[in-house]
Design brief:
single chain, Lipoprotein, signal
Length: 217
């Protein structure tokens, strides 16, 4: 790569990090729309526990991203927010998080054409994250009542105008992978919710509410 092309690539990446890309915050924490009616109000209030494990090893996700996404999942889709008593725990366990980058060949083409395709919106590359997760529902006595698993495959493009910046794409890819895994888990919880509710209430409420979220690393 000659100096001029290298300088042009650096200038383009810098401009993508500042302007011309879609909002990362909207992609990270906007409400989940798919299956939005599933499980609302069917389970009693549950304390949140998160073991993000492999997600901490990726280059994208922040330490609190998994807890925020799972808290939103419980608030919108599972627990009854008006309850003051907790009847157990919902524990998120991330068992796998693999990240890959594709489209590197496009960068060679982009540099050969003085980055013109990228300037008109063609992607520079893609970030892909595969997240495998499980959610355990645990009663107030510490008994696991059910375990539900899902796998999410995200694909986030780095591009001007209709993509994300080079700096935000890895994080968005990780978070979207987790969201897609939770999308698979949600209908499983919906199917089991009536039985789970009966068992959670039968075991009684937690003796002491220890907080709204617990994150283990």
């Amino acid at each position: 790569m000659n100096f001029a092309n290298r300088y042009l690539l650096l200038l383009l990446l810098a401009s993508m990090a500042i302007t011309g890309c879609k909002s990362s915050e909207e992609a990270l924490y906007s409400a989940v729309h798919s299956n939005h009616s599933v499980s609302i109000g069917k389970l009693p209030r549950l304390e949140q526990v998160v073991d993000a494990g492999p997600l901490y090893a990726t280059e994208g996700a922040y330490p609190d991203d998994a807890a925020k996404v799972f808290r939103q999942e419980l608030a919108y889709h599972t627990a009854e927010p008006e309850d003051t008593l907790g009847y157990g725990y919902a524990k998120l366990i991330i068992t796998q998080a693999n990240v890959s980058r594709t489209g590197r060949a496009l960068q060679v083409f982009q540099m050969a054409t003085l980055m013109t395709p990228c300037l008109v919106g063609l992607p520079l590359e893609w970030y892909r994250t595969k997240v495998t997760a499980e959610v355990q529902i645990i009663n107030s006595k510490g008994v696991v009542l059910g375990t539900y698993r899902g796998t999410g495959h995200s694909k986030v493009r780095v591009a001007m105008y209709n993509g994300y910046s080079q700096s935000s794409a890895p994080r968005i890819s990780d978070v979207q992978g987790l969201r897609l895994a939770l999308n698979q888990i949600r209908p499983q919880l919906d199917t089991a919710s009536l039985n789970l509710r009966t068992k959670l209430v039968a075991a009684g409420p937690l003796e002491e509410v220890t907080g709204t979220a617990h994150t283990t690393k």
